Amino acid sequence: xxxxxxxxxxxRKAQVRQRILDCAFAxxxxxxxxxxxxxxxxxxxxxxxxxxxxxxxxxxxxxxxxFRIATQREVDKVAEALATPGKAPDxxxxxxxxxxxxxxxxxxxxWALIAEPIAPKVEEERxxxxxxxxxxFERAIMDGVAEGSLPAQDARLTSxxxxxxxxxxxxxPLSPTQQASNxxxxxxxQQLIDQIVGFCIQGLTGARR
Amino acid sequence: xxxxxxxxxxxRKAQVRQRILDCAFAxxxxxxxxxxxxxxxxxxxxxxxxxxxxxxxxxxxxxxxxFRIATQREVDKVAEALATPGKAPDxxxxxxxxxxxxxxxxxxxxWALIAEPIAPKVEEERxxxxxxxxxxFERAIMDGVAEGSLPAQDARLTSxxxxxxxxxxxxxPLSPTQQASNxxxxxxxQQLIDQIVGFCIQGLTGARR
DNA sequence: ATAACAAGTGAATCACGATTCAGTTTTTGT
DNA sequence: ACAAAAACTGAATCGTGATTCACTTGTTAT
Lengths: 209, 209
Hints:
The structure is a homodimer.
Chain A: H1 7-31, H2 38-45, H3 49-55, H4 59-82, H5 88-105, H6 107-114, H7 120-147, H8 155-171, H9 176-181, H10 186-205
Helix pairs in contact in A: 1-2, 1-4, 2-3, 4-5, 4-7, 5-6, 5-7, 5-8, 5-10, 7-8, 8-10
Chain A binds a DNA duplex (30 and 30 nucleotides) through helix 1, helix 2 and helix 3.
C-alpha cells in the first residue's frame, strides 16, 4: 500500500482551487459572465483546462461559487452600513450610497450580479442574493416604520424599488459599454449618487432630507 | 426572357416576411430572446430555415426588428397616456400604472425589452428604446417642474429611476420563472401596481398623493 | 527503489445552434 | 410548352466553447 492523502497535499490542492476561483472572479470582474470562458480561467490560473474539472463539477458550479463570493462581499458591506447607530432614513441613505458607489466603481461586476443573464444554477444564487439584500433593507425600513421615522409601507416592495432604481440608473442607460469609454470624474459621480439616493429616500419618506 | 417581379409575388413575399416576424415575436413573448431559435421560428412559420435568411440578413437582424416593433408598441402606449390633459403628477401616475400593468401582463416580453441581455445589434435597438422612454417621462417631469407641480430635479435621472424601480419590482425578484408558476390574482396585481406607482410618485413629488 | 494511487495535462470529442448552398419548385413572359 | 429568374428547401457545414479521457507527472508508504 502507498499514497495516503496528506496535509501537505490537501493544502496544495486547496491553493490551486483558490487560485482558480480568484482568476474566475477576475474574469467576471473584467468582462462579466458572458465572456468568462473555462479555457481563459485555466490559462490565467496557469493550469490545464482539465484541472478545472478536477476542482469543480462544471463551469456552472465554478461560476455559481464565484457569484456567491462576490455577492457575499456586497451584502456584508451593506449590512455593515445598516448596522451603524442612527435613525432608519440616515442609515438607509448611507447604505444606499455605499451600494451605489461600489456598483459604480465596478460596473461590470455590478451588472453581472444584478442583471446579467446567466446559467440556471447561477441564477439560483442570484435569487438568494436578492433575498439577502431585500432582508437587509427591509429590516431597516421596518425599523423606520416602528420608530416613526418612516410612514407605513410594504417594506419588501419598497426595498425592491430601491435596488431597481439604483441598478437601472447606474448600469442601465449608463450601460457597461458606455462606462468603459467615458468614465465620469469623481465629483460628478458623487453628485449622481447623491441625486439617486435623494430620489430613493424621498420615495421612502415622502420628504426631502 | 421571363419572370418579372409582379405585384402578386411582392404581396406574397411580404406576407411570408410578416408571418416570420409574427412567429418570431410569439417566440420572444413566450420564452424571451434567449430561447428564440431560428429553427423554431422557421418551424412555427411553416417555412424552411433557409427561407428566414431570404427575408432577413441574419438572426440578429430579424430579432432587432422584432424588438423594434414590440418596443414601439409600448412607447406609443405610454406617450398616449402622457398626452392626456391634467397636471404632470397625475399624467405620470397614469402612465406609470399603464406601463406596469402591461409589463405585468406580459412579463417575459417586458423582461426581454428591459433587461434581457442580447446580441449587440439588438442592444442598439434597446438604447433607442430607452431613449424614447426617457424622453416621454422626462418631458412630463419637466412640464411638472415648469408648472410648479413637481420640485426641481434632474428629469433624466429621475425618469431612469422610475423605469428601474418598476422593472425591478415587476420582473426582478418576481422573476420570469416565478411568474409562470404563481400568477397573482387580479386584485392583488392592481394593489401591487398602486403601491409601486405610489413609491415612484412620492420619489418625484416628495409627497403622498 | 518501487508499488499504488492521486493530480495534472491538453488534444480530441461533443453539443448546439447559426448559416450556407446545391438542388427543387414556383412563377412569369413569350 | 418552354426558358429564364426567383424563391424555397433542409441536410450539411461551420464556429464556438464546454467537457472528456488516455496518458504523464508527482506524492506517499514500505
